[in-house]
Structure formats: C-alpha cells, structure tokens
C-alpha cells in the first residue's frame, strides 16, 4: 500500500490503519490476490477538481476510486499487481463524521473499505448492487469492531 498525503493533520489515520481496512475489505470480498492500493489524502480543492474531471460533479466528495487499467495478463504475472488508486478528501471525511455523529476513525475505515470494494468491481448504481456492496461494508466494519455505518448509532 502506498499512502500520499496532501495535508498533514493529527487526526489522519496511520498507514497501519489503512492496511488493516484494505485487508478486511479484500477478505469480505473474497479477493485472494496480492495487490497494491495507492491511497491519496487530498484537500477540498483537489477533490472537487478530480470529481469534476472524472464524474462531472462540481463539488468535493469523500472518496473516489480509480481501478487499475493494467491488462489482466500483465497483472497476473506480477507478484503484487496494482489494484488501483483511492482518493480520500480529509476535510469532507471530517465534516461528515461530525455531521453524522460518527467517530472519525470509523468513518475513515468505512470510506477506505468502500473505496476498495469499488476497486474490486462493486458498485451501488442499482438497488441490488447497492445492497450487496453495503452488506460487505457492514460485514467488514463488524470485523473491525465498528457499528453498521448505515445506521444512526454508527460510532
């Protein structure tokens, strides 16, 4: 796992936290291949720019996922193939955690897991896909000792 930070803030998770969250997401998704994930922590401005460029949305968002476009044949031959990049906007995460009355650590965990599941091909465009993805997120959070992130008492 690679971690890039645009901002330094005492409330940002440690690299070991991100590794644990990535590993749990892969476990619940039954993904068994050694992979690399790059996580980049950004500010509002960069998040808004990327969200506009790649999703056509003119606002900062909490998490963006960019799956690797490496051809399968090449990835399969690598010891640790790149799974993709996850961009997380620290100010949005912090504001959402406060607004939703969630612990900051659990919200970071949830959004990291959410991003990894997107890299693994899960989505929430239609109800069936959303239900499947949310169930995996809830399972991963429970394995980490966190509450269901989709309920009001998620702390």
Quick gist of this model?
The protein is of the alpha/beta class and 155 residues long. It contains six helices and four strands; from the N terminus they run βαβαβαβααα. A four-stranded mixed sheet has the order 1-2-4-3.
Descriptive report:
This is Endoribonuclease YbeY. One of its GO terms (biological process) is rRNA processing. It comes from Agitococcus lubricus. There is one protein chain. This protein has 155 residues and is of the alpha/beta class. It has a single domain, classed as Metalloproteases ("zincins"), catalytic domain (Collagenase (Catalytic Domain)). Helix content is 48%, strand content 17%. It is built from six helices and four strands, in the order βαβαβαβααα. It has helices at 15-28, 44-55, 72-77, 90-99, 104-119, 127-143, and strands at 2-5, 35-42, 63-67, 81-89. Strands 1-2-4-3 form a four-stranded mixed beta sheet. α1 (15-28) links the parallel β1 and β2. α1 crosses α6 (127-143) and α4 packs across α5 (104-119). It is globular. The two termini are 26 Å apart.
Question: Helices, strands, pairings?
Answer:
Elements: E1 2-5, H1 15-28, E2 35-42, H2 44-55, E3 63-67, H3 72-77, E4 81-89, H4 90-99, H5 104-119, H6 127-143
Parallel strand pairs: 1-2, 2-4
Antiparallel strand pairs: 3-4
Helix pairs in contact: 1-5, 1-6, 4-5, 5-6
List keywords for this structure.
155 residues; alpha/beta; Collagenase (Catalytic Domain); four-stranded mixed sheet; 6 helices; 48% helix; 17% strand; globular
| CATH homologous superfamily classification | Metalloproteases ("zincins"), catalytic domain
User: Based on helices, strands and strand pairing, what is the structural class?
Assistant: alpha/beta
- Overall domain count: 1
Rg estimate, integer Å: 15 Å
Major sheet, described briefly? 4 strands, mixed
Strand order of the largest sheet: 1-2-4-3
> Architecture, CATH level 2?
3-Layer(aba) Sandwich
């Amino acid at each position: 796992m690679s971690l890039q930070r645009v901002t330094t803030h005492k409330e940002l998770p440690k690299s070991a936290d991100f590794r644990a969250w990535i590993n749990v997401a892969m476990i619940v998704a039954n993904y068994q291949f050694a992979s690399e994930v790059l996580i980049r922590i950004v500010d509002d401005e960069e998040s808004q720019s990327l969200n506009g460029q790649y999703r056509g949305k003119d606002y900062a968002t909490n998490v963006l996922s960019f799956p690797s476009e490496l051809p399968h044949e090449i990835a399969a031959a690598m010891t640790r193939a790149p799974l993709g990049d996850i961009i997380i906007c620290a100010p949005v995460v912090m504001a959402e955690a406060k607004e939703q009355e969630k612990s900051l650590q659990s919200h970071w965990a949830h959004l990291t897991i959410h991003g990894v599941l997107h890299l693994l091909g899960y989505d929430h465009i239609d109800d069936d896909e959303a239900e499947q993805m949310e169930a995996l997120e809830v399972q991963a959070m429970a394995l980490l000792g966190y509450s269901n992130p989709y309920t009001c008492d998620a702390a």
